[in-house]
Write a structure and sequence with these properties.
It contains 22 helices and 10 strands. It is an alpha/beta fold. The chain has 2 domains: 305 residues, ABC transporter transmembrane region fold (Up-down Bundle); 242 residues, Rossmann fold (3-Layer(aba) Sandwich).
Length: 581
């Protein structure tokens, strides 16, 4: 199946560039739009000729000839209309795809600190409905330039040819309808802003309800949440009514105002028919053109309001429409040896001035497993995140002699893989959860995480669907699928935060044995409060709440670190560690 390749766009935050990008499509829109709308005036002209031929008692041959020409014109005009609409819709669809891709890339390129400050519901609304509304406004604007602007000009010119005086007198009310619509745009703009903001808030509430449904049910607050959601929905409904009522309810009023001039047409045009200055066919042609002109004028008035509403959505998505260059640079990930050097590493989250970890120093080479443990809230997980380079840090983190912050984000993703302490699974198959869309054999990595016996019990094997966030799997199965995803690329540095909390000790020991055997080219960093297999690690870092740290092997720390010895001995008494020795 062929895929549509989406070309990049320069300065995507300038709306004119979306039309510039689609030069061929816009050219077709112009050609077919002009042809369709200019030829529209031929339809009432030949309609009038046909009436005159019937009223005047022309021969059957002449009547049939004019009728066939009329039918042919109608058919040709509708074909031109189809082609114009086809290319306008094509422009809208491609523009929507481009905008969504740019917003997606923008979100993916944001720092974690920026993403943490984003409202998820707001992001969803902007990326989906705001793009739709913005593109719909662009489509209507493109359509109405021709269907309103060109055809009104064509009708007006033809009517002036028939009779300039009647045209001027009957057309007085048409600008009135357009000026009225223009005067309402500020009110519509304000109501539209309120409606879009409330839509974002509702989307966030719905997402929160889905993500935390079990929490709310277990604590008996589902009824309260439903009541609050209903209140917010009523508010959204009221804002939607205010945002749309002036736009939709005013359309008939615009039409009535624009059509007031029809009395002038009937009176003055009828007089010309009585005085034989016009034939009945000419009168029908003129009044048909006037009715079409008035209708188009009322739609032009509505267009002002539609464009005004789309401007609200454009301003909401514009900050997310920025250019991003590809960071897909080559990385020598097959290098046999890997060196990690951490010197005087200190770290604090961007939104906080409190330092979480201070002066951490360690080093590792390929094939080593480094354990990180410590007391509660000592910064174990924070150290793992700091080693990813996603946040600014003080001190030095060097990989193969190059500072981590000097690697591009793409390079870091090819060098370091990370597993957080909470498995994050997609509502997809086991295979896609491990590969994330890449095509590769996952048999060996599932064996490394001791999942082969579980897989054998599943009729669909690797194609088994895990459900929303892995709900169809046990906690241990979720943890091992997430672990397999982290291991599958055998990156140079693999950071695992509490990967074995949901598996039994024997499985934990078997996985560690597989890691030591099959990942000799990687440095593996395991963060855990469970020390059953720490005696097999090459080196260990013990973090204290006072931001100090102890370093050494298991035996060294058992002698020199009271905190490590205390934790290990307490866990040893509670559980049988004999299998791990």
């Amino acid at each position: 199946m062929a895929r549509l390749m989406i070309e990049p766009i320069k300065q995507p935050d300038r709306i004119i560039n979306y039309w510039k990008r689609e030069k061929f499509v816009v050219f077709c829109i112009i050609i077919f739009g002009l042809s369709f709308n200019i030829s529209m005036i031929l339809s009432p002209i030949y309609q009038g000729k046909l009436i005159d031929s019937l009223v005047g008692g022309e021969s059957l041959y002449t009547v049939v000839k004019i009728a066939l020409i009329f039918i042919g014109l109608v058919g040709a005009i509708q074909l031109l209309r189809y082609l114009k609409r086809f290319y306008i819709r094509r422009f809208a669809n491609r523009t929507s795809a481009v905008m969504r891709l740019i917003i997606y890339n923008n979100i993916m390129q944001k720092s974690l600190a920026d993403l943490e400050n984003e409202d998820t519901g707001n992001l969803m609304t902007r990326a989906i409905s705001d793009v739709d509304l913005c593109v719909e406004g662009m489509r209507k604007f493109t359509t109405e330039i021709f269907d309103t602007g060109v055809i009104m000009t064509a009708y007006l010119a033809a009517m002036l040819v028939y009779d300039a005086r009647i045209t001027i007198y009957s057309g007085i009310f048409i600008p009135v309808a357009m000026v009225l619509a223009e005067s309402l745009k500020t009110i519509i703009y304000k109501y539209s802003i309120d409606f879009r903001a409330k839509s974002s808030e509702i989307a966030g509430m719905a997402l929160d309800a889905v993500e935390n449904v079990m929490l709310y049910r277990a604590n008996g607050v589902e009824v309260i949440n439903r009541k609050n959601f209903n209140i917010e929905l009523e508010d959204l409904q009221n804002k939607a009514i205010r945002a749309n009522i002036l736009d939709n309810s005013m359309q008939p009023i615009y039409n009535v105002i624009a059509m007031l001039g029809v009395t002038t047409v009937i009176y003055m045009g009828g007089t010309k028919v009585i005085n034989t200055e016009w034939t009945v066919g000419v009168f029908v042609t003129y009044i048909t053109m006037f009715a079409a002109l008035a209708t188009k004028a009322s739609k032009a008035a509505k267009l002002f309001n539609s464009v005004q509403k789309s401007q609200v959505s454009w301003k909401r998505i514009k900050p997310y429409l920025t250019e991003h260059t590809s960071q897909a640079t080559s990385v020598n990930i097959n290098k046999c040896t890997t060196r990690l050097t951490v010197k005087n590493l200190s770290f604090s989250y961007p939104a906080s001035s409190e330092t979480i970890i201070e002066n951490i120093t360690l080093a590792g080479t390929s094939g080593e497993i480094i354990g990180i443990t410590g007391s509660i809230a000592s910064g174990k997980s924070t150290l793992g995140l700091a080693l990813l380079g996603l946040y600014p840090y003080l001190g030095s983190i060097s990989i193969d002699g190059r500072e981590l912050k000097d690697y591009s984000e793409h390079e870091r993703s090819r060098i370091i893989s990370y597993l957080g302490h909470k498995p994050q699974l997609l509502s997809d198959s086991i295979y896609n959860n491990v590969t994330l869309g890449n095509e590769k054999d996952i048999t060996s990595v599932l064996e490394d995480v001791c999942f082969q016996s579980d897989l054998a019990q599943m009729p669909d094997g690797e194609n088994t669907l895990v459900g929303n966030n892995g709900i169809r799997l046990s906690g241990g199965q979720q943890a091992r699928i997430a672990l397999a995803r982290t291991l599958v690329n055998k990156n140079k540095i693999i950071i695992l935060d509490d990967p074995f909390s949901a598996v039994d000790m024997q499985t934990e020991a078997n996985i560690i044995a597989n890691l030591k055997k099959n990942y000799q080219e990687s440095i593996i960093i395991i963060i855990s409060h469970r020390l059953s297999i720490f005696n097999q690690f090459d080196q260990i870092v013990v973090l204290h709440n006072n931001k100090s740290a102890d370093y050494g092997t298991h035996n060294q720390l058992m002698e020199n670190s009271p905190l490590y010895a205390t934790i290990y001995n307490l866990q040893y008494i509670e559980g049988d560690y004999s299998f791990a020795k």
